[in-house]
Amino acid sequence: MSPDELKPLVRTIPDFPQPGILFRDITTLIGHGAGFAHSVRHLADRAQAAGAEAVAGMEARGFIFGAAVAARLALPFVPVRKPGKLPVPTLGIDYALEYGQDRLEIDPGAVSPGQRVVIIDDLIATGGTALAATALLRQAGARVDHALFVIDLPDLGGAARLADAGVTVAALMAFPGH
């Protein structure tokens, strides 16, 4: 299935989580066996072309796609976690959300100095989480210059913000609006 054939498998939920938002729900895509498999294949092909030596995914939906891509390519998977989820001393970064703050953490031993890590997540909107993950992985010594997403919401500018940080962005599909 091509990315154009995958796009209708993404469900749109109007007015979630607040009025005026069109929520792009990947639950229906991952619930479609062939669609999920083809999504992973497309992402894996792009990660391999980017020279990935490891794949990082942000909690929670980035785990779904990132771990599947890492397994397909027989590469290490680096979970980028919410605070307090790792049983070892962590590296962490606080970052701004639209209405507050959040934090991401990693096990500093999960990456090697200079290791080329490709970030994978389900969706890029404003880019805040992906930028924070990029900064955190770079702080740990990784080389992060590619990020892959199933969905881009280009009107929100996240891909452009990542590009400004030296990260090449690719997505399987894009939806207008927010």
Automatic annotation (TrEMBL):
EC number of this enzyme: 2.4.2.7
Descriptive protein name: Adenine phosphoribosyltransferase
Known partners and oligomeric status: Homodimer.
Chain's gene name: apt
This protein's pathway: Purine metabolism; AMP biosynthesis via salvage pathway; AMP from adenine: step 1/1
Cross-referenced InterPro entries: Ade_phspho_trans, PRTase-like, PRTase_dom, UPRTase/APRTase
Keyword annotations of the record: Cytoplasm, Glycosyltransferase, Purine salvage, Transferase
Catalytic reactions on record: AMP + diphosphate = 5-phospho-alpha-D-ribose 1-diphosphate + adenine
One GO term (biological process): purine ribonucleoside salvage
GO cellular component: cytoplasm
Family: Belongs to the purine/pyrimidine phosphoribosyltransferase family.
Keyword Cytoplasm recorded: yes
NCBIfam families linked to this entry: apt (TIGR01090), PRK02304.1-3 (NF002634), PRK02304.1-5 (NF002636)
Organism: Novosphingobium aerophilum
Domain Phosphoribosyltransferase per the UniProt entry, residue ranges: 53-144
Main location: cytoplasm
Pfam families (alphabetical): Pribosyltran (PF00156)
Its biological purpose: Catalyzes a salvage reaction resulting in the formation of AMP, that is energically less costly than de novo synthesis.
Gene Ontology molecular function, alphabetical: adenine binding; adenine phosphoribosyltransferase activity; AMP binding
Subcellular location per the Swiss-Prot or TrEMBL entry: Cytoplasm
